[in-house]
Design brief:
The complex is a heterodimer of chains A (168) and B (173). Chain A has 168 residues and is of the alpha+beta class. In chain A, 27% of the residues lie in helices and 33% in strands. In chain A, the strands form two sheets. Chain A has a six-stranded antiparallel β-sheet. The radius of gyration of chain A is 16 Å and the shape is globular. In chain B, the strands form two sheets. In chain B, strands 1-2-6-7-8-5 form a six-stranded antiparallel β-sheet. Classes of the chains: A alpha+beta (168), B alpha+beta (173). At the A-B interface, helix 2, strand 3, strand 4, helix 3 and strand 5 of A face helix 3, strand 3, helix 4, strand 5 and helix 5 of B.
Chain lengths: 168, 173
Amino acid sequence: MPSPDRSPDAWRRALTRFVRVIPHTRELGLEVLAADAEAIRMRLPWSDDLLGDASRGLVHGGVLTMLLDTVCGSAVLRGLPEPEVCPTLDLRVDHFRPAVAGLALYAEARVVGVTASVVFTEGILWQEEGRQVARGIGNFVRLGPRNTPPGFAEALFAANHDKESGNA
Amino acid sequence: MPEGFDNVAWIARTRTEGDVAAWLALIPYATRIGVSAVPDPEGDGLLFRLEPAPGNVGNVLLPALHGGVVAAFMETAATLDLMLSAREATLPRIVDLSIDYLRTARAVPTFARCLLLREGRRLANVQVTAWQESESVPVATARLHFVLGESGRVRHEQRQGLKSVRGAPYRRQ
């Protein structure tokens, strides 16, 4: 059996599959831009459903929390020796400025620490380069190989020969 | 001035009427994930509900709700609860949020109740508990800080925000 391709591009395709399997992020059209060893980058395209204040054209703060949970959780998969199922233990979000209507949201996350039971992550969000709208700190529980469904990693990478536009 | 969150007189009137549905109608993301509110049958405040819509699922194997959607539900609940219970008509602006996930939130209706722990002159602290079958078995707890907006400050910040949008380097959709 050939050793699996775990290049940054293979990871980008695997995480693309991951966010397309999740109904909520699939329906919002979340894209994975890059999955380097250092950081995961995603882009959430604009849609009017992201509004939290239609009067003033401001994004719902919960959209930012959802995006940080997703991008930090994806960084966890990328950051472990073998992907494990890792539910969010807790998440802290700081809102630096409101995110505004009409612009895509960009997200970047990295793993900052790994223990036998927990993965520590941090992420940032922005719309315009250099102007962060929010920061997130997310800790994820390692359920370990015993509680990870058999074939979890294979399923992430299995679709790599598929067209990216195909069914996830 | 049109009805909306930039109109403090409108906020004050809908607040007096307890018209939380009018507020939710101006929160498209809350509508998308299926948030509703009814007067709390066990108290003075509101009881919030999140529908287990297929689009709210974050794990198809279990299946379980997306943790971020649960957080968005709880933030919506905290904001509306604060707008209703604050001393004056106000448009709260979130400063930070911290959420603890206690159990898997399955694809069934989720409920939430809020507690205003402190209302200062400028800042408020709101605690939210979310549960599914039984309130004694919470799926998540959260606490949020809000700045209590007053009309003049809100409008000024909006103008500043619009200025920065015009200079945005990214293409609009």
